Amino acid sequence: MSLDWIYYAISWILLTWHSAWDALVSAGAVIGTNWSWILAIVFLVVTVRVILFPVFVKQIKSQRAMQALQPKVKELQEKHKGDRETLQKEMMELYRKEKANPLMGCLPMFLQIPVFLGLFHTLKRLRPDNPQPTLYGWTVDQFNSASSAKLFTAPLSGRFGSTAEELSRLGANSGTVKIVAGVLVLIMIATTYLTSRQMILKTGWAEDPQQRMIQRLMLYGIPVSLLVSGSIFPIGVIIYWVTNNLFTLGQQQWVLRKFPPLVTAKTAPARKTAQPAKSGGLLGRKSAQPVAKAPATAPKVAGPKPGAKPTNPKKGSRPAKRQG
What is the DSSP-derived secondary structure letter of residue 262? Predict the structure, then answer.
C-alpha cells in the first residue's frame, strides 16, 4: 500500500503553516534558529491534535465504560473459568450490549502513527543532496529553505547518530548536533513517561494482569526504547514528538477534569477510613485529646462535692428519727 497520500497531506500542512509564519517572523535565523520552520512543525502537531480531539474524547468515554464494566467482567471470568471460548463470547456480548469498545483506547495512538511516519519520511529527505526536491508538492525554494533550517545551529534533518560525513554535507558541527539532539531526546523520554504516568494515576492500575502489564509497558518500556530509537530520529521529528507530548499532557488534564474517573465500591470505603489517619497529624492529635478525656471527667462532675449540703444523703434520714 502506497503512503504517498500521507506524505502529500503532511507536506501540505507543514508548508501552509510555514508560509503563514514566514510572513510573521524573520525569514533569517535568530539565535541560530529558523523559527518559521520550528513553528510550522509545532502547529502541524496542533492541527493534527485538534482534528483528533473528538476521537480522544471518545477514547476517555470508552475507558470509563470499560472501568464501569469491570465487576461484570469479573463475574463472567469466575463463571466461565477454564472455558475461554464461552468467556470471550459472553464478554463480546456484554461489550455490545453496553456499547463499550476495548479497542477505542488505542485508536488515537493508531491514527497518529501515519502522521508520525509521514513527518519522519518528509524530514528525512530534507538534505541538500536529495535528487528529487520537488516531491510531495514542494518547490525548489521551499526544499532548499527547509534543508538549511536549523535549531540553535543544528539542522532539522540532523540526528544524534549522524556520521561526520553526513553532518559535513549539512554544514553542521558534530558536537552541536549531539548536544541539541541529546537534550531533545531526554525531554522526549521524560514527557513520554509523564503522559503515561498522568493517565495511570488518574484512572488507576488495572486489576486484570494483562492490562496491568500493558500499562507497565506504556509507562516504562516505551520511554526506555526511546533511548535507542531517539538516536535515529531527525531533530525535526523529535520536536514534533515533544510538542505532541506537551499537548497530550494539557489535553489529558482537561479531559480528566471534565470526565473524572469512576469511584468503585471498593475504593470508596477505603477513602473514608483513610481520612482520620491523614488528619491524625499535629492538628488531629490536639483535637482528639479532649474527646478521650470527656468520659472520665463526666462522673466527677455528677458526684457530690465536699461540704455540699443539698446533696447529703443523711439529711433524708433525720425526719425518720424525729418521728420515732
Answer: P
**CA 174, CA 183: separation in Å to the nearest integer?**
14
Angle at CA 109, nearest 5°, toward 108 and 110? 90
Q: What letter would DSSP give residue 181? A: H
- The set of cell numbers assigned to 175 is 558536537
| pLDDT reported for residue 27 | 65
pLDDT at 307 over 70: no
Residue 312 C-alpha cell reads as: 447529703
* Candidate from 18-22, 277-281, 286-290 with smallest mean pLDDT: 277-281
Separation between Cα atoms, residue 119 and residue 111, nearest integer Å: 14
Find, among 141, 150, 144, the residue nearest to 173 by Cα. 150
Q: Are 123 and 37 contacting, i.e. CB atoms less than 8 angstroms apart?
A: no
Instruction: List the beta bridge partners of residue 154.
Output: 151
Nearest Cα to 74, choosing from 224, 182, 208? 208
For the ranges 162-166, 184-188, 265-269, 287-291, the maximum mean pLDDT occurs at 184-188
How far CA 283 is from CA of 275, 279, 290, 295, in Å, comes to 13, 7, 13, 21
The answer to whether the beta carbons of residues 31 and 152 sit under 8 Å apart is yes
> What's the confidence (pLDDT) of residue 272?
43
Could you tell me the pTM of the whole model? 0.69
Give SS3 for 33: strand
* pLDDT of 15 over the 90 cut: yes
Partners of 30 in beta bridges: 33
Instruction: List % helix, strand, coil for the chain (3-state, nearest 5).
Output: 75, 0, 25
Of 259, 212, 253, 206, which Cα lies nearest the Cα of 64?
Answer: 259
